[in-house]
Amino acid sequence: MYISLTGLKPNGFLSYIRFWFLAIPSFRQAQTAEGNLHCDVKKVKEYQCTITAWESREMMLQYLRSGAHLKAMKAFKQIATGPTYGYESETIPTWEEAYVLLTEKGKMH
Quick check: pTM over 0.85? Predict the structure, then answer.
């Protein structure tokens, strides 16, 4: 299975509002996306984080490049910063494991 981790920090109050305006539809899209096996969200330290698990990387990319998520990605640079990390795994990480992976291996955007 393919695990996708994100940790996003909005750039200020107005960005925080816009972030949630885009994040909620993106998360709902992920929950119902073909190939999604697990979808969770939680604030960890200063980041709004997600853990998603997918049947394959290709199915995750289909989600990534469509609908509400695509709209959110186009606005990302104006509203938030933070790391993302994706990898193949047999297990879904705990929140503690996910945060360590994000901070140690994640690509900052």
Answer: yes
